[in-house]
Amino acid sequence: MRINGVNVGVLHTELNYNGIYPYPVFNYGDYGDFTFADDTDMDLVQQIIDAHDPTPILPTPTAEERMTQLEQENKLLKAQNAALVEQTEFHEEVLTEIILTINS
Description:
single chain, about 100 residues, mainly alpha, 3 helices, 3 strands, rod-shaped
């Protein structure tokens, strides 16, 4: 049975969870080819297909990808921290001038 517009791996797991074990299952990217036993409750299969969320599961980033992402975040945080330090120094100078003006 050809099933279009599904996440084949997730749908296969959902079918298994409900006691339906298609074999073989072929994943062709945008559709799957599922073979069901003759005694399979096809109404239940259709209910599972109808309830299926085809949203793709995002792959887990590799260690290298994660390291690159963290390095970019670290660079941004360092720049933000430097800007805050500069702003704080400016505010301290302004406050010092205000205090000296008030006390003079």
